[in-house]
């Protein structure tokens, strides 16, 4: 196997891991392992990318999407090509129609498709940062349950972290408390009394209050 800019082969790379079977990769149910659909209007990019990174690590597929292997050289290898086709199909199955039509191209390899999808969410960092911060700091519970409200804050925080914004637990807790509806006024004032409050501990406390 040829690596870009290197004479190293896969067999001499101690970090490469076992070569995955094309049949085993093909038979994975991607919709179970990535149980969300990525679209440009939802807060799902960070989670979608995290699910895929776990799959790439678990099945030693990282070299298919990190640009370390010359895919042109590898196209003569049937196993490699079969795995490439499967990964590309995974991407197409887990994105919205709008994203699919934006990135689809006949001769792309898995690395190309992965890069195209990621750049849709990272190329306009400043604009996305402004949008996400507005959503995050303007988040209110309204008629949502505690679970729904906290999940919304967590997803927004994850999306912000995905574009290198620093969102600490303290900021999440302040935002959460500020957006609680009037039924939780007393609970919000008691949050400061919790010993070593974390976002997860506060969720547990608020769910008990909700009951």
What does this 3D model show about the protein?
With 211 residues, this protein is mainly alpha-helical. It folds into 2 domains: 10-122, no CATH class; 125-210. The protein contains 12 helices and no strands. The chain has helices at residues 22-26, 30-33, 45-58, 71-74, 78-93, 97-103, 110-122, 125-137, 146-162, 169-179, 185-190, 199-210. Helix 8 (125-137) runs antiparallel to helix 9.
Question: Could you give the topology of this structure?
Answer:
Layout: H1 22-26, H2 30-33, H3 45-58, H4 71-74, H5 78-93, H6 97-103, H7 110-122, H8 125-137, H9 146-162, H10 169-179, H11 185-190, H12 199-210
Helix pairs in contact: 8-9
Largest sheet: none
Strand runs, count: 0
Q: How many structural domains can be distinguished in the coordinates?
A: 2
Class per helix and strand makeup: mainly alpha
Any low-confidence stretches, pLDDT <50, length ≥5?
A: 1-15
Order of H and E elements: HHHHHHHHHHHH
* Overall 3D form: elongated
Instruction: Kindly report the average pLDDT value.
Output: 87
What's the gyration radius in Å? 21 Å
Helix content: 55-70%
Instruction: Report the β-strand fraction as a percent range.
Output: under 5%
Number of helices: 12
How far the N terminus sits from the C terminus, by CA atoms, comes to 59 Å
């Amino acid at each position: 196997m040829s690596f870009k800019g290197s004479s190293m082969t896969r067999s001499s790379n101690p970090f490469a891991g076992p070569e995955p079977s094309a049949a085993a990769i093909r038979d994975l149910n991607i919709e179970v392992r990535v149980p969300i659909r990525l679209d440009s209007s939802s807060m799902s990019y960070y989670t979608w990318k995290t699910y895929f990174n776990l799959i790439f690590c678990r099945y030693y597929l990282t070299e298919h999407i990190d640009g370390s292997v010359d895919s042109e050289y590898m196209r003569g290898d049937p196993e490699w090509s079969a795995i490439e086709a499967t990964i590309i199909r995974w991407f197409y199955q887990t994105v919205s129609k709008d994203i699919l039509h934006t990135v689809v191209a006949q001769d792309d390899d898995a690395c190309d498709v992965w890069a195209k999808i990621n750049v849709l969410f990272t190329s306009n960092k400043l604009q996305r940062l402004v949008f996400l911060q507005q959503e995050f700091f303007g988040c209110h519970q309204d008629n949502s349950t505690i679970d729904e409200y906290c999940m919304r804050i967590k997803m927004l925080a994850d999306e912000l972290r995905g574009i290198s914004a620093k969102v600490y637990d303290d900021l999440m807790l302040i935002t959460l408390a500020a957006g609680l509806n009037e039924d939780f006024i007393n609970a919000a004032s008691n949050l400061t009394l919790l010993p070593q409050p974390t976002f997860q501990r506060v969720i547990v406390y608020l769910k008990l209050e909700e009951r």
